Amino acid sequence: MKAAVYTVYGSPEVIQIQEVDKPTPKPNEVLINIKASSITRADTMMRQGKPKFGRLFMGLFKPKNTALGTGFSGVVEEVGNQITQFKIGDAVFGEKLFSNGTNAEYICVDQDGIIALKPDLLSHEQAAPICDGFLTSYSFLKDIAKLQFGQHILVNGASGSLGTAAIQLAKVLGATVTGVCSAKNTALVKALGADVVIDYGKTDFTKGQTRYDVVYDTVGTSSYKACKNVISDNGVFVTPVLSFETLIYSLFKPKKVKFSATGIRKRPDLKALLSELQILFEQEILQTHIDKTYKLEHLVEAHQYLETGRKVGNIVISQP
């Protein structure tokens, strides 16, 4: 089968599409024929080996995990002899972390992993990025920031994968939402439910008079230090983008600054969140915004586009 791999840190050109062995499911696994997968900013950071202190975990001189892609949607092709939750032919979606990547033709997933039946009204392309965008943002808003009805949240990077998800989820949770994005994306962010939209090209939200209960920096372009004057007394700064400054603040001001990697959370907690998201998508309360779709053989081009910073919503890898 074909799969994307990278064996050294670097630019998009280090990515290779190689022929590798098709995986065989273990007794508790399903083999999925991947129809669509996601690529995210986190993928580019791992491929670049950034931040560099992260290489202590990712591999000091070269990547330990050479696969790419986390989100997926596809069809169950084979099941292990202990599988009780899925059957051959089921359309499923989910996320696979710290293992064989989803930018590939096939992948094996534990039935107790982050996997669920795909809502019928969603295409594979619409389902593939749900865990990267919606599951991560839902984890941050509901469990980490503990966003409450009536609170005010600011979403920095409101037009990206995490941002477009966060706006919709914050409205579901009953919050007032301010989105920060570029001028060209203000209409989309407003349409997704933001009550206020700030064009970062004209206004620096960190110097405004409004104070927020939650500042969710989805892109890592701000910091607690920059935002502390616009965070309420009991408010919190949360981000999935690790930096040395965020690491230090999260250690010494854990009530004010919270960093988390969704993938290291307990499976039962993530599966519970995914089940709630599944229902919200089935009820058409949430929607995935897709910017561009690429074929697997054009993954380098997809990473090049992602690095321009012009991505709106999600980039999806679509396969026959």
Write a brief caption for the model.
By secondary structure, this protein is of the alpha/beta class.
Structure description:
This protein is α/β, with parallel strands linked by helices and 320 residues long. It has ten helices and 15 strands. It folds into two domains: 159 residues, Medium-chain alcohol dehydrogenases, catalytic domain (Quinone Oxidoreductase, Chain A, domain 1, Alpha-Beta Complex), CATH 3.90.180; 129 residues, Rossmann fold (3-Layer(aba) Sandwich), CATH 3.40.50. The strands form three sheets. Strands 3, 4, 5, 6, 7, 14 and 15 form a seven-stranded mixed beta sheet that branches. A six-stranded parallel beta sheet has the order 10-9-8-11-12-13. The longest helix is centred in the C-terminal third of the chain and has 16 residues.
Shape: globular
- Helices and strands, in order, run as EEEHHEEEEHHEHEHEEHEHEHEHE
Task: Estimate what percentage of residues fall within beta strands.
Answer: 25-35%
Q: State the major sheet.
A: 7 strands, mixed
